[in-house]
Every structure is written in structure tokens, then in C-alpha cells.
Write a structure and sequence with these properties.
Length: 727
């Protein structure tokens, strides 16, 4: 109900109902053959996917489409939609203690110690937190939650053992022995094994291997004639793919903890070419990949795991990247086949909405966002730090030489140049020497004798500026643990990265303190109005420090300036307190997973990064969506796009004697547009000399041309190249 409608009402209604919001419809403006050939396109994708997702829609199914001028339903697609609804209803009908859940972690790239890793997420600790929360909410996790020696690190270590080729070759029946043997080695001090395996019971909390040897014939029966024929055509007996035992069986393995089965997602392709499936649409997943998902779904009484839901833990897996329709799954889409009617709870990084839409749309993922780690400054180290010292020494030596008349600074040139070459900075900050009308780039190991002080000094200054830029760059520091509230230090890192010098460390500490006080008030049952009164009172107290030492006359003289200063500070401080409060809600990441396992609904949120996209992306633990097409470009993207367009024109004019370009080519990438909230669209509009006109809700209602008198330059035609996702 975005795009001008009442968002709050929709969210309140759906939250109160607490049932999955599933969208299924035939294509109203697209034919079935066109969908089969190219997927869901254009306006139809906005109607069926983009807009409903703004309200938290999941599991969108195409039920049919136009045949001539009539709408026809496809019975198989109707059955698909029914199976997915039944999957969620099955969760609601089953008591928590009886629900069977699969948690799937990743091990890509293979054989390099990557088992149990995900982007920006501490998987072992998150896995441990998740299992303990499941136990708290009444799920059967065996003795893991009550065992003081149980560790997520041990579970991941055990999964890594099961993923070793030497262990897979022995088959399912020998896998428990392999883990037991590794536990004994750990107890004897073997440093090549995980230290936590030396704990009593291996730190596994009673978890045991549950694995299967699956024959190709059994897989064919599970897949059915149509899909098994495709697999057998793509993967012959000679090219069986990974995950096969010495006896030719497909090995499906994991760790059973009560009613929870923990497994590693099968490898995507083959060793040496793991991304093969992404680029060969006619290829199929290898047999063991298919077996992993098929046996996860297969009822326990039929020899499978019998999972009622799967949790893909972290960003990101591969099932959503399998061959099939680019948008709008059909019977031939492998993600559609392998997930079947299984609810897919996909724990995904909040800052990557562009790829999350593939998990949501192609992989039927109900997304639960997790927070990105706090930000830190990159700093300088090793050779870069040495280079900075050399440049400082050069400047000091040059200043000293100017007084003494010596040339000692010249001796440092070669050292600075050699250091820059070792750091490969010369590629980013080239040293240029003019020779008449030509300008040459210095590339040799030695500096030319003709190099003057002025040229070298300008280049050295540029290198210093470049190092400052490197030093101040922000990066995500550490990993996030699912459901963990940031510490005070981490909260301060977020605030300092967001506000920079606008907010002091003292103010950061006060904002965090105010949030903690608010939490205490809520815990004690104090009303919201009293909390707000307390916060307002603190603002007043804080403002008093600006006036307490001034006389009445000085206050009256500086009244206007003082009020503006206090008002600006209060706004920043209030925003900081709000950010801390939103970051403090990361515990809702686990709450949302629990609610989804009960067949419930979680609130939607735009995905993105706090620094780039602001507070709209918080709190996490939400079903993130990628974009609202009616709100592009955002205010920030519009400002950035205008600056980029101005820079494009400036550089062209400088290179062409002040002449403006007649036509400029701009590539509109879908993923880039989502990440930047429409920055490339803003560039196009700015070049043409147009601007978005928005109504009070922030919805773009039209685009107006800027009058030439106001624009102050000719309009520039734009040749736009549109990517498939953008279309």
C-alpha cells in the first residue's frame, strides 16, 4: 500500500492478522508464451512483485496469463500456489515441539575452510543463538541448549568434516565415525582440529550425524520423469558431479539436534568451475544438489528428513541462482522444483537489497534482515604507513632546506617513489611530466633526472591526499551475531560514522545513556508519555549549559544565534537517540524468525545501508524489499545524480573547448539503481534538464522540464541502455 496509499494502515492490519501475505495472480497484461520465453516483464512485474512486496508480500506465484484476449489459468501453477500455502498452514497447525526444521549454512568456495561462513555474519555464534532461542520457544533441540559445553563452533566444525571429500567417499554410514575420530584427535591436542571439539561430547550438545546414501534411481523417482530426464541428460554416470561416495551413491548429510537438522548447502557446480550453473541456462543442478533438497523435503516415514521449513542462514546461498525463469518461476525453474512447497526463511544482510530480490522472487525467500557490523576507519598499515612517514619526513626536510639552503630532501625522492610503486599507488596517482605539448606518465623504477621540485612536490601532495582518503575510508568491522544488540563501543562507531564531526563522543555516550534509560523505563512499565517527558527534560537541561554562565543581557543580545545553535544540536541529538533506539531493536531478528516458523507475518522494510540510505533501513529483522518505483530517485540519489551529471558535463567541456555534448550514453543497471535508490535515473534526468515532482507522501507524480533560462545550458540527449533487471 505504498505509492501514495496509507502504509501504516496496511502494516497495522497485516501485523494484527499475523498470517503470511501471499500474492498469486494470472498475468493481466502479458501472454503465457511471452512469460515462458522471457519471464515476467515491465509493468506486469511492478503489479505482481514490486508493489505488493512493499507491504511484505511473499511467495508470489504466476497462475497463468493471456491467451489471445482471454485469461487462462495453468493448473500446475495453481497447485504450486496451493502447496506453498499449505506449507505455511502446516507450520501453524503443528505445535513448536513437533515442528521439524532444517537450518542450511554455506560452504563456498569449496575446500578452503569456508564451511559456516556468510557475508558480515558470525555463523557459528548465530547458529548457537538460534538453537537456544528455539529451545526457549518450545522447540525440540535435544540437549544442546542445556549443555554448557555445547558450541556453535563445534557444530560448524562437524559440518566441515562431513563436507570433506575423503569423508564423503566413505559414504553416509561412516560419517559418524569420522566425527568421533576427529573429536578424539582434538582431545589429544591436535591443532589441526577445532579446539571446541575437545570439549565433553565434542561440544556438540548431543548432536548426531543423520546422513543418507541416495541412488540415482531413488532420485529419479523423487524428481519425477520430467526433471530427472533433464538431470540425466546433463549429468551422465561419467560426470556425476560432487558429493558422490566411492560406491557411486549421492551422499546427503547433516547434524541432527532434536527436531532440527543442520546441513551445508550442496556445492553449486563442480570443482574448478563452481559458478558454472549461473551462466549455462540449459544446465541443471548436479544430482547430489537435487538430492540434498529432495531428501530435506521427503517425509521421515519415506526415508527423508521431513522438514516443514528451511532457514537459509546468511547471505547468500545458491538455490535462487539456479537455472530457470529470470522472473516468475514456472515448472522448469529449478528453484521452484527443489523448494517445492517448503517455507523458505532467508536470513539476509540488510545492506544488499539488490540481490535479496532474487532470493525473494526466484527462491521464495521470506527475508529476515540482519544488521551490518559497526563501521571502522581503514587506517594505514605496513608499506602505506611507511609511505606516510616518508612523505612527512620529505615535507619537514624541504622546510628545513628552504632555511639552510641544502638539498637533503632530494635524497628522499627515490625512497618515496619506490614505496609508491610497491603499494601500486602510481596507478591511482600517476606522476606526470610534460614534454612540450605531450604529457608522459613516469613508469620506470628510477625517477627521470629532468624531474623538477615543483612537479614532484605537486605529485607528493596528491599522494598525501590519497593516503588521507584511504585512511578515512569506512569499512564494516567484525561480524554480526544474529539477534545481538550492539555494545556501547559499537553504538558509538555507528553514530560517529553517520554524523562525523557533528556529534562528539560525549554526545554519543549521552545518546546511548538516554536509550538505556528509556529501556529501563519501559521495563518498569512507565508510560510512553513519561518517557517522552524525560527525554524532553534532558534536552532542556542540555541546552542550559549554553546559557548558565551568561548574564541576562548577553542572553538577550545573542538570543537568535543561541536558539539556532541549540535547535540544530537538539535535532542531531534526537536523531542520534533515535538511531541508537533502532539499533537496539536487533533482538527482533530472532523474534521475526520465530514468528515465521509459526506461520506468521513480519513487517517490511527497505533494504540498504544506514550511512547511505538513512534510518529508513532500521530496525533489522524485517522482510526487506528492494525499491519503490514511484519514489525514485530518492532525495539523496537526486542530489548525487545532479553532482555526477555536472561533473560529466564539466569534464566534457574542459576536453572540448567548452562545447557541451549533444548525446551521452548512460547504462541503467537494475542492481545499481536499487542500491543507489535511483542515482542513475537522476543522472539521466539532470542531463536532459528535467526534475521529479513529488507529492506530500514523497511519491513522484511526474517529471517537469527545467526552463532553459534556469538550466543555463543546452539540454543533452541521453541514449539509455537498460539491463534485464532494470526492465
Amino acid at each position: 500500500m505504498e505509492a501514495g496509499r496509507n502504509v501504516a494502515v496496511a502494516e497495522t492490519l497485516l501485523t494484527s492478522m499475523n498470517v503470511p501475505y501471499i500474492v498469486a495472480s494470472p498475468l493481466l497484461v502479458q501472454s503465457i508464451p511471452q512469460w515462458k520465453q522471457s519471464g515476467v516483464l515491465g509493468l506486469q512485474s511492478v503489479i505482481l512483485y514490486s508493489l505488493p512486496e512493499l507491504d511484505g508480500a511473499i511467495d508470489t506465484c504466476v497462475l497463468g496469463g493471456l491467451v489471445g484476449d482471454k485469461i487462462a489459468l495453468i493448473p500446475e501453477r495453481v497447485r504450486k500456489m496451493t502447496s506453498r500455502v499449505n506449507g505455511w498452514m502446516n507450520l501453524r497447525r503443528t505445535p513448536p515441539s513437533e515442528r521439524k526444521i532444517t537450518i542450511m549454512v554455506y560452504g563456498f568456495p569449496p575446500n578452503v575452510g569456508a564451511v559456516g561462513t556468510a557475508a558480515l555474519l558470525d555463523v557459528p555464534n548465530s547458529l548457537e543463538r538460534l538453537l537456544k532461542r528455539l529451545d526457549k520457544d518450545g522447540y525440540d533441540v535435544g540437549g544442546f541448549a542445556t549443555d554448557p559445553d555445547a558450541s556453535g563452533e563445534s557444530l560448524v566444525a562437524a559440518l566441515a568434516i562431513l563436507s570433506e571429500n575423503s569423508v564423503i567417499t566413505t559414504g553416509a554410514s561412516k560419517m559418524q565415525e569420522a566425527i568421533d575420530a576427529r573429536i578424539e584427535r582434538a582431545k589429544k591436542g591436535d591443532i589441526t582440529t577445532a579446539a571446541t571439539l575437545a570439549r565433553p561430547g565434542g561440544g556438540l550438545g548431543g548432536a548426531k550425524v543423520k546422513a543418507f546414501d541416495v541412488s540415482r534411481d531413488d532420485l529419479d523417482k523423487s524428481l519425477g520423469k520430467y526433471m530427472s530426464k533433464k538431470v540425466n541428460r546433463a549429468w551422465s554416470e561419467k560426470d556425476r558431479g560432487p558429493g558422490v561416495s566411492g560406491k557411486g551413491q549421492l551422499v546427503v548429510s547433516g547434524i541432527q539436534v532434536g527436531n532440527v537438522w543442520i546441513t551445508v548447502q550442496p556445492l553449486l557446480g563442480v570443482e574448478g568451475d563452481p559458478m558454472r550453473l549461473l551462466f549455462e541456462r540449459d544446465l541443471t543442478p548436479h544430482p547430489q544438489y537435487c538430492a540434498g533438497y529432495e531428501w530435506m523435503k521427503k517425509p521421515e516415514e519415506e526415508g527423508g528428513i521431513g522438514s516443514q521449513a528451511v532457514i537459509h542462514l546468511g547471505m547468500h546461498g545458491t538455490v535462487e541462482w539456479l537455472p530457470g525463469q529470470p522472473l516468475g518461476n514456472d515448472r522448469q525453474s529449478w528453484s521452484d522444483e527443489l523448494l517445492g512447497g517448503l517455507p523458505n526463511i532467508y536470513v539476509y544482510a540488510a545492506n544488499n537489497p539488490s540481490e535479496s530480490i532474487l532470493a525473494k522472487r526466484r527462491g521464495y525467500g521470506t527475508l529476515v534482515s540482519y544488521n551490518v557490523p559497526p563501521y571502522g576507519r581503514a587506517g594505514l598499515y605496513l608499506e602505506l604507513a611507511n609511505l606516510k612517514d616518508l612523505l612527512n619526513e620529505y615535507r619537514e626536510s624541504k622546510a628545513s632546506d628552504n632555511v639552510s639552503g641544502k638539498n637533503s630532501h632530494v635524497d628522499l625522492r627515490d625512497a618515496i617513489w619506490s614505496s609508491c610503486q610497491r603499494c601500486e599507488i602510481t596507478a591511482d596517482v600517476p606522476l606526470l611530466i610534460s614534454d612540450g605539448e605531450e604529457t608522459n606518465v613516469v613508469t620506470g623504477a628510477d625517477l627521470p633526472e629532468s624531474l623538477t621540485d615543483d612537479i614532484f612536490d605537486r605529485w607528493a601532495l596528491a599522494v598525501s591526499d590519497y593516503l588521507v582518503e584511504l585512511q578515512d575510508r569506512l569499512f564494516s568491522s567484525g561480524l554480526h551475531t544474529l539477534g545481538d544488540t550492539p555494545t556501547d563501543t559499537e553504538m558509538t562507531s555507528y553514530l560517529q560514522a553517520y554524523f562525523g564531526e557533528k556529534l562528539s563522543e560525549e554526545d554519543c555516550a549521552k545518546a546511548i545513556s538516554k536509550w538505556k534509560e528509556e529501556q529501563e523505563f519501559k521495563t518498569k512499565g512507565q508510560s510512553e508519555s513519561n518517557v517522552l517527558e524525560t527525554i524532553w527534560s534532558s534536552f532542556q537541561e542540555f541546552a542550559m549549559k549554553f546559557t548558565q554562565d551568561q548574564s541576562l543581557e548577553s542572553i538577550e543580545e545573542s538570543n537568535n544565534a543561541s536558539e539556532e545553535k541549540i535547535s540544530e544540536h537538539d535535532v542531531i541529538f534526537a536523531e542520534a537517540t533515535n538511531i541508537v533506539s533502532l539499533l537496539g531493536q536487533t533482538t527482533e531478528e530472532l523474534d521475526s524468525i520465530m514468528n515465521l516458523l509459526g506461520g506468521g507475518y513480519i513487517k517490511p522494510k527497505p533494504g540498504g545501508d544506514l550511512l547511505r540510505d538513512g534510518t529508513s533501513v532500521l530496525p533489522t529483522g524485517r522482510n526487506i524489499h528492494a525499491l519503490d518505483p514511484y519514489r525514485m530517485p530518492s532525495a539523496g540519489a537526486w542530489a548525487r545524480g545532479q553532482r555526477a551529471a555536472e561533473e560529466i558535463l564539466r569534464q566534457h567541456c574542459e576536453a572540448n573547448n567548452g562545447a557541451y555534448p549533444e548525446t551521452t550514453a548512460v547504462t541503467l543497471w537494475g542492481l545499481d539503481t536499487i542500491k543507489t535508490r535511483g542515482e542513475s535515473i537522476a543522472i539521466v534526468l539532470s542531463l536532459v534538464g528535467a526534475r521529479p515532482v513529488k507529492e506530500g507522501t514523497g511519491r513522484t507524480v511526474r517529471y517537469d522540464l527545467v526552463p532553459l533560462e534556469e538550466l543555463g545550458r543546452p539540454r543533452v540527449d541521453v541514449l539509455a541502455s537498460l539491463s534485464g533487471i532494470f526492465r
